[in-house]
Amino acid sequence: MATRLDPFQEMDRLLGQMFAADRATASMPMDLYRSGDHYVLHVDLPGADPGTIDVNVEDRTLTIRAQRTPRTEQDVQWLAKERPVGTYARQLTVGRGLALDRISATYADGVLTLTIPVAEEAKPRRIEVQHGGSATQIGASEPASA
Questions:
Q1: pLDDT of residue 96 exceeding 70
Q2: Mind listing the domains of the chain with CATH numbers?
Q3: Residue 21 has pLDDT above 50, yes or no
Q4: Measured torsion, CA atoms of residues 35, 38, 43, 46, in degrees rounded to the nearest 10
Q5: Strand partners, 106
Q6: Does pTM surpass 0.85?
Q7: pLDDT, position 4
C-alpha cells in the first residue's frame, strides 16, 4: 500500500506541538463568580505538584504559581508528549472592597479553589432613618393667647 509523503505536514505537526505546548504552559484556565458575601476562583492546575503551588497578594495583585515536573522514565520512546511541563503563573489585579488578608485556598482533583471574602466596609448595609413625631420648627412663633 502506497502512502503519500508530505514533508510539510510533518513539519507543521511538530511546530504545532511545540507552540501548543508553549501556549498551554502559559495558560491557566479559571472560573470566577460571586456567591453571597465572597468570591470564588477555580483555577485548573492538572498534574501540578501540590508542594509547588504558591498564592500571594502584594498590594492589589494576586499571583498564583505552580509547577508540573517532567516525567523522567529511563529507556522509553515517547510516541506523544503533549502535556506541558514547567511553571504556570497567573496574575490578577483585584479591586478594592475585598478582604485579601482572609483568602482561603484548597487544592483537590487538579483544581485550586480560592475563596475571597468581601470586606465588611464594602458589604451593602441598610441605613436606618430616624424620624420624630413632634419635631419643632426653628423660628416658629408661639400662637398668641387670647
A1: yes
A2: 27-72+81-122 (2.60.40.790)
A3: no
A4: -80
A5: 113
A6: no
A7: 56
